[in-house]
Amino acid sequence: MSTNNLQSCKRKMFLHGHGRQSTSIDNLGLDILVYELLIRLPAKGVGRSKCVCEEWLSLLSTRHFAMMHCRHISTSYNHKCIAIGSRLCSVFPLSCEDSGPLLNSRILLPFEAPWNKVNILTSFEGLLCVCFRNTGKLVIWNPLTHAFKEVSSSNSRGLYKPKSDAIGLYVDKTDDYKLLHIKRRRGRMWVHVYSSMFDSWHKITFANKLRC
């Protein structure tokens, strides 16, 4: 039996749960499965794969895999750079492999705000969190679809102070895109989370008024 056929049989034994050899990652050549398949999964898929067995948990939790996965994801996505100018935004593709001229597209700012008062605070999966410097209001904006949502509320939730606050975008297990807002005032910290699914803010109680 050739080496390729032997490896193929071993992988089938692993997938179907036959044979004692299925417990050995080295013998089964799982490095192929991990570094050719699992490395292409999004972060959420990698997290789910860690629940398959203890061996996968151990292998997918290594620093080496994390670095390889991050490197693959960062080179696989169609990254773009956005530059805000007077009423117009220029969008440039980012590619380390393409040494040709950068071709940019232009889009209009969809919200009423002075262009020189708009700060991009963070981004996640194509969404941008934008702050208006003159008011402190926060906006979640999708430049691709031109859709935006002002998330600041009448009770001062979602008002950002550049020198003391921190912002982060993430998605939870229900695929609800959320905005994390950490406020620091007079040595104390407050944490609030905005839910795009429910269009509302809620306070993280365990972090309420922590010293910082």
Please give a structural write-up.
This protein is of the alpha+beta class. The protein is built from six helices and twelve strands. The chain has helices at 3-16, 25-28, 30-36, 43-49, 54-60, 63-76, and strands at 80-84, 88-93, 105-108, 118-124, 127-132, 138-142, 147-150, 166-171, 177-185, 188-195, 200-203, 210-211. Strands 8, 9, 10, 11 and 12 form a five-stranded antiparallel beta sheet that branches. The chain starts with a helix and ends with a strand.
Helical/strand content category: alpha+beta
| Tally of helical segments | 6
Which parts are unreliable, with pLDDT below 50 for 5 consecutive residues or more? 5-26
Number of strands: 12
Question: Distance N terminus to C terminus?
Answer: 65 Å
Looking at the structure, what is the overall shape?
globular
- Helicity, in percent? 25-40%
Please outline the major beta sheet: 5 strands, antiparallel
Averaged pLDDT, please?
77
The helix-strand sequence is HHHHHHEEEEEEEEEEEE
Q: Gyration radius, to the nearest Å? A: 23 Å
Strand content: 25-35%
Based on the model shown, name its key terms.
single chain; 212 residues; alpha+beta; four-stranded antiparallel beta sheet; 25% helix; globular
Architecture blueprint of SSEs:
Elements: H1 3-16, H2 25-28, H3 30-36, H4 43-49, H5 54-60, H6 63-76, E1 80-84, E2 88-93, E3 105-108, E4 118-124, E5 127-132, E6 138-142, E7 147-150, E8 166-171, E9 177-185, E10 188-195, E11 200-203, E12 210-211
